[in-house]
Amino acid sequence: MNAVGYILGCIGLIGAILIILFPERVRAFLLWRSFWWIYSSPSFEHWLRYKCTANKIRAIGILYLLGAVARGIHLIIQPK
Q: Cα(36)–Cα(25) distance, rounded to whole angstroms?
């Protein structure tokens, strides 16, 4: 394990926690006009704008957090 892995892991954990704590701000950030890739996918924009709720964003954040924790555990217990 190197320093880059630790830094990326910390960024991932912080990102997951922010998604869980502030789902509406995450949604507003994704709907911000400078994200050109959202507007290339009208179905994703429609889902994000009209069908996406705070609980759905929070569930995505929880899955992201579980993935980050599982990856951290895997890095700790992997054979050397």
A: 18
Give the DSSP letter of residue 78: S
How confident is the model at residue 22, as a pLDDT? 92
And the tokens for 7? Answer: 């830094």
- Quote the CA–CA distance of 77 and 39 in Å, as a whole number: 42
Answer whether residue 57 shows pLDDT above 80.
yes
Q: How far apart are CA 42 and CA 22, in angstroms?
A: 24
Q: Supply angle C-alpha 8, 3, 10, rounded to 5.
A: 30
| Backbone CA torsion sign across 38, 41, 45, 48 | negative
- Contact in structure between 48 and 78 (CB atoms under 8 Å): no
